[in-house]
Every structure is written in structure tokens, then in C-alpha cells.
Amino acid sequence: VQLQASGGGLVQAGGSLRLSCAASGSIFGFNGGWYRQAPGKQRELVASITNIGNTDYTESVKGRFTISRDNAKNTVHLQMNSLKPEDTGVYYCNLKSVFGNLDYWGKGTQVTVSS
Prior knowledge:
The chain is an all-beta fold. Strands 2, 4, 5, 6, 9, 10 and 11 form a 7-stranded mixed sheet that branches. A 4-stranded antiparallel sheet has the order 1-3-8-7, with no helix packed on it. A hairpin with a 4-residue loop joins strand 7 and strand 8. The protein is globular. It starts with a strand and ends with a strand.
């Protein structure tokens, strides 16, 4: 399965972006996640969604970001509102099979939030 992330860009603080991750195959049976890596920092998990739609978020984005999935279209989205400069980074989408034996990564999309 190949993942193609899109939707990144440059936005002012307080703005919104919607990231999309399109998979080349079925995402049924996979948990999805969005990670970000800020300059000089380790990659961190920002939001996750299980194969049955349960979601979780890192504390800093709760109430601002929403992860969702569309199994029919094999996509995972990340709606980002009220963006802050500290949200800047490269965002990567990830799919992990529920049994843990398969792990796929997209190439990443740059998000830059100006103050």
C-alpha cells in the first residue's frame, strides 16, 4: 500500500488546513495516524484513529484538530483549525494493521504557520 499525503501549505496563525492521506489500497483493518516532525525535534504522534473510528489526540491539538477516515475512499483526513506557529512541521500519515504486522508511511506534507 502506498500513501499520498496532501493539503499542506503556508497559513497564518488562526487559519485552517485539511490534510488528506490517500491509500492505494483498502484501509479496512488498519489504524490510521498523523505524525508531525518540527525542525530539530523528534517525530510525534498528533492524532490517531482506530479501524473502528475511535480517535485520540496529543494534548496540544485537542479541540483544534479532527482526524477522520473514509473507508470507501481509502482516505484519512486531518482537519486542523486555529493553527498556531508551533504546529509547523512536516506531517506524515501512517497506517498500521490492527495485528501490527504491516506499517505504511506517506512521504509527508509541509505545514507552515506564520505568526
